[in-house]
Amino acid sequence: MTTEKAIEYWKARYENTKYFDDVHCDASELREHKEYVEALKETITELEKQVPKKVLNLMLNADGKTTKVFKGICPCCQCIVTNEYCSRCGQALDWSDSDD
To answer: How confident is the model at residue 37 (pLDDT cuts 50, 70, 90)?
Structure first.
């Protein structure tokens, strides 16, 4: 299973949480459901960080070609980055020249 498919899977589970019948449950079941929803949110957030996002502020030459740079800006937290993952938020980064 790809990361994208896993994200879709857990987002579908998260969407199903709105149909929880909290009227006919006790406090323990309600607490457990809330913990489940929080765990789903966290899982989705962490999986989304594994999908590389384009680094911001890559310099362009006059001819429109990207100049290779060694620093960029994380598209999620705007931290200065130099590696394949942001050291602040953990986002996977895409340093490629293409817009694909």
So the answer is: very high
Place of tokens 């890559």: 58
- Residue 16, strand partner residues: none
Question: Is the separation of the CB atoms in 72 and 85 below 8 Å?
Answer: no
Gap between the Cα atoms of 45 and 35, Å rounded: 15
Give the list of residues 6+ apart from residue 9 with CB closer than 8 angstroms, or none: 1
70 exposure class (CB count in 10 Å sphere: 0-12, 13-18, 19+): exposed
pLDDT tens by residue, 49-100: 999 999 887 665 666 666 666 788 999 999 999 899 999 999 999 988 655 5
Cβ neighbours around 67 below 10 Å, total: 9
